[in-house]
## 1
Amino acid sequence: MSASYDVAAIGNAIVDVIAPADEAFLVDHALTKGAMMLIDEARAHELYGHMSAAIETSGGSAGNTVAGLASLGGRAAYVGKVAADQLGDVFAHDTRQIGVHFETGRLSGGPATGRCLINVTPDGERTMCTFLGASVELTAADVDPDTILGAEIVYLEGYLFDPPEARRAFAKAAGLARASGRTIALSLSDSFVVDRHRAGLLAFIEAEVDLLFANEAEITSLFETTDFEQAARAAQSLTRIAAVTRGEKGSVVITPTIRHTVEAYPVAQLVDTTGAGDQYAAGFMLGLARGKPLDACGRLGGLAAAEVISHYGPRPQVSLAELAAANGLA
Amino acid sequence: MSASYDVAAIGNAIVDVIAPADEAFLVDHALTKGAMMLIDEARAHELYGHMSAAIETSGGSAGNTVAGLASLGGRAAYVGKVAADQLGDVFAHDTRQIGVHFETGRLSGGPATGRCLINVTPDGERTMCTFLGASVELTAADVDPDTILGAEIVYLEGYLFDPPEARRAFAKAAGLARASGRTIALSLSDSFVVDRHRAGLLAFIEAEVDLLFANEAEITSLFETTDFEQAARAAQSLTRIAAVTRGEKGSVVITPTIRHTVEAYPVAQLVDTTGAGDQYAAGFMLGLARGKPLDACGRLGGLAAAEVISHYGPRPQVSLAELAAANGLA
């Protein structure tokens, strides 16, 4: 069966609220720099009340990835839950208007659309506090089999391991994809997510995952080591392909037999790292869906990541397809 | 009486929805490039449905101006109406968190918070369609006399000439300011606003306005001429100070006796002209409130405008106070 989508992604549907902050703000509010912390609505309200003037833009890790895929000229579908409110309108609009298939039913009478409060320090690092809101109400019933079966790659966001209902949706999607021979990709999302769900994640990766995305903190957390080499060797025997991002050191693509080291693209000015991992995954998966060699997949991922960290916000601001063509990666 | 605020501003409280668009989009949707068009909720919904993925950020002409004033280290107050909804939360947050006094009551059970759909073409020009929403429900009762009397300059946004109730609020503020010897400033806002309300605006300026802000299109529309020189001479005899912006040609500050020509600051890359006039007014009024000569006021306005057109969005992204200091204008 020829696929309708290069990638179908499932994730927590979130609107980002992005503001500049200084280092003292992180200390005052007990935030761990660079991490994602889950907060409840009361804490979200309180923290937002202390943040600076912000911009709002659609986010969510897998949502950002499908936006990157669409910008690269790929065909993508998205499954995620927003509420029937103004921020839900924003999320649905931003997702559909870039050509992503998005038909998950909206939530009425429950929590508001989820928000991620992102404080960006002058060094460009983002620190995130997420009120999941409506996104936790994603259920297995929201996972449309036609969407999953219509995709070459089914991409799952590690953040979904937090909400129990979403985790069932996750398992359903993986089961459908496995049964029809689709490639299953997983992003580890955050080192604290890995810490909270290590055993479950390891079992899931071993049983189901063909393509694993992680950064250095996440992969070392997964294997409970501080040594990257040790984590890389462990990843090698766990999954078919592991693509590990290492910030300015680029990325490493690991298979059971080969390891590719891919240099990072230079960035004129690092403004905001939000979305770097998400865009790397977008570029990598588009390359894979188009049959490119793994090192070229890594380069395309790196190029997409370099674009997104050069400005505020988690989604590309230029056509990644044109950028890829200009860099000989089309 | 010593003033609590450098500037108290009254305007249509609006959240901006900013998206890239090509020239064909403007043609297809019959939009006049560079202008502001009023639209109703149904048209807003329809147009938004055709726009690309967007970012949301607090806007409104006078709202942007007080944001610029605060960034310059000035003390500002704002009067404007948003609804008790998510976008109203965003507007109130963004206004207060930069240190602007904003206590106008929120609207419940009426229209939603106003939105300005802004399509930015590759040349950086912005074309705006505004659904006024809750902002038209601003009434004279919302104009708090203590706020108006506590300001050195009372700044009125020409857009308020459109909603009839807001126009009464406008008149009340002007009356209060006049009675207590405050400086009254008016921005003409848009050439089509001028066209709709020419007689009313001319009478109001002659009777009440000390400081008039306009761009070239607005000032020539006001005096029904295509000749800038002719418009400049007419402005000279109408008001005490007219500050007229001319895009890359800089600005001209006109008084009954003197005319200052102020060069524009160079901009590395013109990205989005949204907010240029608003930030010019912010810089100019801060200079005036601090007792600077008029040409220095024009330079400070030009510097603030140059910052805002170098990125997406209508409000400064860096500290304008630091930028002014670095350019010898503190």
Note: The longest strand of chain A covers residues 14-20.
## 2
Amino acid sequence: MCQLLGMSSKAPSNIAFSFEGFHRRGGSTGEHADGWGIAFFEEHTWRIFLDSQPSAVSRLARFVCDHPIKSRNVIAHIRKATQGEVHLANTHPFRRELWGQEWIFAHNGNLVTPPDCEGLRFQPVGTCDSEKAFCWLLSQIAQVFPQAPTENELAALLKQLAAHLTQSGSFNFLLGWCDLLFAHCSTELWYLIRKAPFSEAHLADADLSIDFSKVNTPDDCMAIIATQPLTRNENWHPFLPGELRIFRNGLPLSLPA
Amino acid sequence: MCQLLGMSSKAPSNIAFSFEGFHRRGGSTGEHADGWGIAFFEEHTWRIFLDSQPSAVSRLARFVCDHPIKSRNVIAHIRKATQGEVHLANTHPFRRELWGQEWIFAHNGNLVTPPDCEGLRFQPVGTCDSEKAFCWLLSQIAQVFPQAPTENELAALLKQLAAHLTQSGSFNFLLGWCDLLFAHCSTELWYLIRKAPFSEAHLADADLSIDFSKVNTPDDCMAIIATQPLTRNENWHPFLPGELRIFRNGLPLSLPA
């Protein structure tokens, strides 16, 4: 299985600390050695880095750690291949354009019977279940909404579609659309909110600490979403199975019942 | 105006020598300082690096030069903004998926009246004329061909569509699709074929030479396509205005009249 990392932040923020621990799970502290990727939202578009090398030894991952990029939305993924060979085409996050807007998707889980995308508007380039699920999701969204809906309309549809796909296996995912980050849990997903008063955090995967009160202003606020907690001494909240949350500006939005 | 660089090669090959000279035109030996991008074909998908920084000073461009990637098809672009602000969303090459295959597009020129993409299948994320032209082209292709056509069928349509867009301004472009590289000239484009017997080449933009007989085998063959010749002592051929060429495995294909 794979691992997910997402960030939603009020102000453009640097995810280097979280990514430093996370990318070590790709072949060093974890077994997720079949590629990795990270996407940074930069108003209207996303900057994506992908590599089919293990993230723990990837020179590109080192470049991303050493040249941190500030962003309000980030989606990262490290892969442990279940379906589809180790190949750039099977490396998350995936990207498509709909309504002149970019969509970014990363999946943790395994869909035993992936959806059939033949004849759909969006079709997979690679061979893994995750890209098929993304193409199927986005094709359904495009069919229901000829134009961009509200976030609540989209969330209602997404929840239905995710429930349908979850019948085929585990389907935890992060989906980026404009300034929103959708996070869906079927088996395991955690989040935490960092806001004032900031304190020191210690990475679970490396002997590294950071005092967030020194790098943030009192106004800052960010949500970190991950397959497993990345730090030892912060207040991580588990998602419930079947739960979909939307994050904007570092906070979860309230969804209508 | 911008500058284009393309490569089609029989064997996966390193474009570092050509890119070394080319990327200096982005703010050092040239005025094309409004972003750059490069896409490498890796069987089924493309690896893309984009930056809105001038390529001559971009740390990512330095990374690409220092960690050369072997590929059979490469499309690179350095931007001098004519329409659309300096922004990642306006940085070439652009990418879309059609029929489960990736399409990569870069443009040199200026379309005074860009095509209207409203309601089309593919819509621009940014604001520049080039992405609008790409979305319009690909939407027409998707409408005419519900499934992938032959390369000759595609070339015939592409020639018509390019002629139509050329009425609005200059429209030199490179288009990557699977293992094919389409190159269209409206005002200026050059190509050369490198094959045995290989000799030494000297970059026009830097005091740098390479002896291709030492880095290639006699079987190797590659085409380099560029807005302006990149070397001083090789046999560059100009495209004719209105000419569309398709390259595969380092050679131009013969097109039906």
Note: Chain A has one domain: 3-252.
## 3
Amino acid sequence: MAISKNQIKYVKSLQQKKFRQMYGNFVAEGDKLAKEILTHSKIKIEGVFASSTWLGNNSILFSNLATDVFEVSEKELGRISGLKTPNQVLIIAKQLEHSIDWEIVNNGLSIYLDGIQNPGNIGTIIRIADWFGIPYIFCSENAGELYNPKVIQSSMGAFLRVNYVSHEFEDLQNRLDNIPFYGAVMNGEDVFKMKLSENGLIVIGNEGQGISSKILEKINNQVSIYPHSLNGSESLNASVATGIICAAFRNQ
Amino acid sequence: MAISKNQIKYVKSLQQKKFRQMYGNFVAEGDKLAKEILTHSKIKIEGVFASSTWLGNNSILFSNLATDVFEVSEKELGRISGLKTPNQVLIIAKQLEHSIDWEIVNNGLSIYLDGIQNPGNIGTIIRIADWFGIPYIFCSENAGELYNPKVIQSSMGAFLRVNYVSHEFEDLQNRLDNIPFYGAVMNGEDVFKMKLSENGLIVIGNEGQGISSKILEKINNQVSIYPHSLNGSESLNASVATGIICAAFRNQ
């Protein structure tokens, strides 16, 4: 089945937040991610657009799919893709609804992203959470959106296992039993030299501004990575800092 | 002084590797980076293109500059910029020549990037090296180039303090006194649970393929981060892995 002009327009519209919100759908691209999504039990597929080769090789993945499967030419894929180098397949799926198990949050480790904007950073942090077995990432309303295609692509499927939920900090705080808050700052205590608890919320601030003052005053433990004043470096990338802090927690 | 069509063409050409190599120059953009470069003793500036406001505020930085300073309109800056959102100033400078102090390399920690391609990852790894006081990053010939504008922008000035030098692995090995090689792999020893030496070379492999087999066989210590098989995550981002391994070394 060839695709129509209207379909091209529709798929491309999902590169924009307002249309993602309007339709409740998102786009994911590439062989590996498509396979992960198609084999995921909770995701509802809305459309598959792929090369004839890919469809031939992967027919088992969508033979029972109650949705439209379109064979597209390389040129057509280029027209609907958000990637510089389109990769065989593009999938449209329904956005997931996240339910929060507060007992898990209260007894384990979670991450809070305060105004993190860069979609590559958000995707990378979702991958980090997945790696370290952290099931919840909460974020402020001004943080980037999960279904931004750059977040989805850079999370590399980790968004299927980690919950990324927008939640204002005060409201979140009210839901939590007094668990410790750890905030990544420039001149805090060395995260590798302190006693870390098994549960808690790791707060990561915006790339440029750090943690907002309103949230910072709620934080019991200000932590830093290898604090020093030896050289000119000003900060680590937000996702790198998150990875190092998570490693410190998991290696206590 | 307004800029000519030929100048626009020249500045834009530096977005491409072949022209950077031909002229031996590179481009850096934005207020912060421009200030760092203009105040750096070793960098030779070839041109400054900035808004009248920026020039007015920062005249002290280039009053003694034996080079051309151009006032550009927002529109002109947009035409020469490689950024989505041009930021006040663009600088052209001569590429640095790196000399290697092998005694420092032999007695300290260095990083080797085996085929790392993503310019954002390379810039972020340069920032990590800067943060942890690691003066040398070596890379294979097929790794990304330092002066790619995306590397320069994401390194955020760290490239001024860290040496990023292309060096084939075998040749590098011949230059080193038997220092330990640590390679980041999927199923190695937990980097936080082993004894790490104070000197050594941390080898980070390509984003998709990992460390090439030719190099892997030279590595004495295969290390991993939080090795586990609990969930579906396949890997950490290369720069995040580098950051965590460097943190492990610095927190021995």
Note: DSSP finds twelve helices and ten strands in chain A.
